[in-house]
Design goal:
The chain is an alpha+beta fold and 340 residues long. It contains nine helices and ten strands.
Length: 340
């Protein structure tokens, strides 16, 4: 049999599908249809049963998020489902009561795990970015943060914390010797200033505010159905700060629009959030700048994908953006390096 890494992408998909089918054999229902509808770091399959139920199966690469990470997600989703009215995905258990499955298939890679969840109704919030929906998004964040503020995770919950720019054990090559060699003059100094500023913000955050957060609840990780918001993709669940959680979601929002529209929607989000909790203190923008630096570091760790020129261009772009921030106190678009 041909080695997996020598296959074309369609051939890899067929092998990975066998992992998905093996995972589904552990559940107490008969499968009618399994359809891949999304793939990036994970593969997502829409599953229909003979009985007419619909689920989503996530086949996750363990090198991206571990089974322990997935168990943290399971624990919080279970708690949210039983202790709040937030309409989160329900975890579907196997016939023996397990939440996570480790599937195997001939010729498929090892290290994948699978999680089956209820299918959420609606369309992605990104298609309906109205001020009214951003108020609801703020309310959703407030509800999640209120619950996490008093929830005591079980002993098997991961202890990983997002309390710095790079927090999941990734290599930090942003200012490494090999990366410094590709920057244009002055860029390294600018990056160092940015790194220091971001670190200062994280260090100043109130440790009492640390709680479990979604950490990736941007607008397209939320569905809208009959006026109700349904959050999903809790894969990045981790200990973190409210300000960080909000900053990441708002950066994804800002990258899709101009400054005036973003500020309108941010104000709507804040109005909804403050119905549940006071707005967290601290410069939101500097945590967003930290995310941009994380992205540049990600490029630097994968030169085979982005190339030295791409890393250098992204770094210079971020330094220029930071200079605009220092001059105005605001992030001024564009917020992403133009891609050729």
């Amino acid at each position: 049999m041909k080695p997996f890494d020598q296959l074309t992408w369609p051939e890899k998909q067929r092998r990975l599908r066998q992992l998905a089918l093996d995972a589904l054999r552990h559940y107490p229902f008969e499968v009618q249809q399994v359809k891949l509808f999304s793939y990036d770091t994970n593969l997502l399959y829409r599953v229909r049963t003979v009985a007419g139920d619909t689920y989503v199966l996530r086949l996750a690469n363990g090198s991206w998020r571990s089974q322990q990470n997935a168990m943290g997600e399971v624990r919080w989703l279970d708690a949210l489902a039983t202790e709040t009215v937030v309409p989160v995905p329900r975890i579907i258990r196997t016939a023996d009561g397990s939440a996570i499955v480790t599937p195997t298939a001939e010729g498929a890679p090892d290290g994948f795990h699978a999680l089956l969840m209820s299918w959420l109704p609606g369309t992605l919030l990104g298609k309906q970015l109205t001020e009214a929906n951003l108020v609801k998004m703020g309310e959703l964040f407030g509800q999640l943060h209120v619950h996490a503020g008093h929830w005591q995770p079980p002993a098997d919950f991961p202890d990983q914390r997002f309390d710095q720019m790079i927090a999941r054990g990734e290599p930090n090559l942003l200012l490494s010797e090999q990366t410094l060699a590709i920057y244009s003059p002055g860029v390294a100094d600018g990056l160092q200033q940015m790194v220091d500023a971001v670190a200062t913000v994280y260090a100043a955050l109130d440790s009492a505010d640390l709680r479990v957060i979604h950490c990736d609840l941007w607008h397209d990780n939320i569905k809208v159905h009959r006026g109700v918001l349904y959050p999903f993709d809790f894969e990045d669940t981790i200990w973190g700060y409210r300000l960080h959680d909000i900053a990441m979601a708002m950066l994804d929002l800002y990258e899709e629009m101009d400054q005036a529209r973003y500020e309108q929607l941010l104000a709507a989000f804040r109005a909804g959030y403050e119905r549940y909790l006071p707005w967290p203190e601290g410069p939101l923008e500097l945590l967003q700048i930290g995310r941009m630096l994380w992205r540049t570091n990600h490029f630097a760790t994968h030169p085979e994908w982005f190339g030295a020129a791409g890393v250098a261009k992204d770094a210079a772009f971020n330094v220029a953006l930071y200079q605009r921030y220092l001059a105005t106190g605001k992030l001024i678009p564009p917020l992403r390096t133009p891609r050729e």
